[in-house]
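To fix ideas, we quote verbatim one protein's residues and fold tokens.
>
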Amino acid sequence: MVDRNLNHHVVVTAIVVRNGKYLIAKRADWEKAFPGRWTVPGGKVEVLDYALREKDTPHHWYNVLEDAVKREAMEEVGLEIGSLGYVTSLVYLKKGNVPCLIISLYADANEGEVRLCNELTEFAWVDLVEAKNYDLIEGVYEELKIVDGKLNGDEELKWNSKKS
């Protein structure tokens, strides 16, 4: 018997950084979740993110989230991303009350031009002040603030529901 209390979709996102600015992208109007809102690249962790490669130990695959977010960044915005850092985690209830565990990471963008997938319609490189002018999915601005703090030497920042 499946214990629904243990089942989650796992999603990983990346706040992509280049020259002190953050990449945000607008979701297509036909998207089911948050249509027309601005977000950062990311998506579901898939079994194929690890199952077709050799295990790193006799029983485990490592770097699954890292590989998945790098795949998602390439698929969604056409960018290779570098080393990753942790931002925060959250849970979102999808339609049908399916819990989605989201792990938010950040990474530098390698060289290259942004090429959007068809689920995204626009993109912008923004700083924190500019980000306030976009209809971001709730929580994304606070995540940008966390990354901004980390990049400026404040490692103790964490997500806070108080708007600023």
